[in-house]
Amino acid sequence: MKLVLRGTTGYHPNDERQTACYMLPELGIVLDAGTGMYRVRDWLATPTLDIFLTHAHLDHIVGLTFLFDVLYDKQLERVTVHGAADKLAAARAHLLAEPIFPVALPCDYRPLEAPVPLAGGGRLSYFPLEHPGGSLGFRLDWPGHSLAYVTDTIARPGAAYIEHIRGVDVLLHECYFPDSFRELAEKTGHSWTTPVAEVARAANVGRLILVHVNPLAAEADPLGLPAARAIFPRTEIGRDRMEVEF
Q1: pLDDT tens-digit readout, 156-178
Q2: Are 59 and 12 in contact (CB under 8 A)?
Q3: Taking the alpha carbons of 34, 36, 41, 43 in that order, is the dihedral positive or negative?
Q4: Is the pLDDT reported for residue 218 higher than 90?
Q5: Into how many domains does the chain fold?
Q6: Which pLDDT band holds residue 241 (cuts at 50, 70, 90)?
Q7: Phi, psi for residue 70 in degrees, rounded to 5
Q8: In CATH, what number is assigned to the domain containing residue 219?
Q9: How far apart are CA 14 and CA 128, in angstroms?
């Protein structure tokens, strides 16, 4: 199974990264609709598209407004946007308000109320995360494959969500800051390097990919990768257009 990273930064895009968007093209599944959403069109090859939103901060939903171009000249049977009921309502009331975006999107909205069956015999489950305004993490399971997506939260070695991600093949986890920015990370509800690696180790995941990287970080290694690998060796930093087989 293939995971394609369409956007790996947070807050705003820069010249190297778009904001949060991750795709499983074989199944027509997208996790978050940040500015990287415009790239989904290049990989869209299924008759349906399911977009799962973790929360309603703009860097995770603004790409919904790109759907007309994403779907241009594509004959899809169904497009569904999934998320917490209050977050879907907020997106529709504000981002998609008529004075801002006057044309209704060609999609349905489905509040998350139970685990969601996925193509290929899979299932998506969700769990709460610690973040201003609230956020969700996702776990996706198929026979022989599993993936977890944890974004916009404060990673802690004893975090409750560890039980929800235990043993997955791939963990996408936000890591906005290196360890030297711990105070700012806590203030803004984001993660820094060491505790993210500790979470991966505690959850016994197969592979850790750090995403939602600070867009102002221009260094080749913006997160202190050696420190993370000293705790969890199978750690890497995600980059836009990266493809992950799992």
Answers
A1: 999 999 999 999 999 999 999 99
A2: yes
A3: negative
A4: no
A5: 1
A6: very high
A7: -60, -40
A8: 3.60.15.10
A9: 29
